[in-house]
Amino acid sequence: MILEELQSELDHLQRDGLRRQRRTLASPCGPEARVDGRSLLSFCSNDYLGLAGEPALVDAACAGARAWGVGSGASHLVSGHLRPHAALEQQLATFTGFARALLFSTGYMANLGIVPALVGRCDAVFADRLNHASLIDAVQLSRADSRRYPHGDLAALERLLAASRARRKLILTDAVFSMDGDLAPLPGLLALAERFDAWLVVDDAHGFGVLGPQGRGSLAHFQLPAARRLIYMGTLGKAAGAAGAFVAGDATVIDWLEQRARTYIFTTAGSPLVACALAASLELIAEGDTRRQRLWQLSAQLREGLAATRWRLLPSPTAIQPVIIGDNHETLRVAAALYEHGLWVPAIRPPTVPRGSARLRVSLTAAHTPQHVARLVDALRGMA
Question: Which of 233, 255, 286 finishes a domain?
Fold first, then answer.
């Protein structure tokens, strides 16, 4: 009976155009992929600066493996915190301008650790309605009162904060929204956090390494200081090209997370060889203005190429360029047609995005070329 129920639910997903499909690559991460015996041009990756296959990172990882082995062997607080981890945390703190940084295995685990460590019963979290699933789950784990405000609506958030009598308040937001590609109004959010004595937790998974001077992230993009009530999360498996995540903030906050964030305390520390690769990655990010400029040029090429066609792009100033279609099955049909043209663009459907807003999520990277983007534009224009 239990298996039949699961199969019935799977059949419903298939019927509604919501069943996900996993593909296995036979090639490293990059714009040109080998899948199911076919060569494809991929617009799926979050490797925004094209560092996942960068030889300098590979060399650093190999040297790290020879010096430190493959595994850390324990959690950070037992015996798994090795010198490469400590050095990387210091680099990340300096790079982002905060007093301290703390490494986590993934961005999802970082978010699940931050929120429940800071708030609980009798507290309140004020979250953007389009926040990532990890932030939504983090609020549920915290057991704090949850208040969701319309996407980017500072006036609505202000009203919710003013009406709250919670012991502690925490404002929670993505910096770059992963399915729309737009930016949170971070200056306004920080001003509200200051006014209402609230934490501001910023998930900069898609801004770190890409936005701001030297790729220092969305806070730097808005020229915001490393305020004491700000808690900054950045991932290291996207623009940084490797794996993991970090949280940066005031020294007292990081000390507290080190003692209370369960997803930090109760898991094995990441591989030291990855920490060594990330140390090299940070240097390339800081020197990566040419890569970031290429991203903006490719983004402009895509938008100009699809102007005056039926394809509606959201007003994204980032490497994420969503093409809104609406219907789940139509979105799948267009993605399949592109696939037949040798172009791999993911079809994103509910519940990842709101119902009726299914889309193609075009992710551009500095490893793409103008010729790659021209192929995608030509294919979409041919379907317009």
Answer: 286
1 assigned to some structural domain: no
Classify residue 270 by its DSSP letter. P
What is the Cα–Cα distance from 350 to 330, expressed in whole angstroms?
Answer: 13
Q: Is the residue at 190 inside a domain?
A: yes
Answer yes or no: 178 catalytic. yes
The one catalytic residue among 85, 132, 221, 238? 238
Segment 225-279, tens digit of pLDDT? 999 999 999 999 999 999 999 999 999 999 999 999 999 999 999 999 999 999 9
Is 134 assigned a catalytic role?
A: no
Gyration radius (Cα) of the chain, Å: 21
Has 206 been annotated as catalytic?
yes
Q: Please identify which of the residues 169, 206, 368, 372 carries the catalytic annotation.
A: 206
Residue 376: domain span? 22-49+289-383
Quick one: 65 and 205 in the same domain?
yes
Q: How confident is the model over 195-219, as pLDDT tens digits?
A: 999 999 999 999 999 999 999 999 9
DSSP 132-177: -HHHHHHHHHHTPEEEEE-TT-HHHHHHHHHH---SSEEEEEESB-
Q: Are residues 176 and 258 in the same domain?
A: yes
| Count of domains observed in the chain | 2
Sign of the Cα pseudo-torsion (105, 30, 207, 134, in order)? negative
The pTM assigned to this predicted structure is: 0.94
Report d(CA 44, CA 46) in Å as an integer: 7
Pair 278, 293 in one domain = no
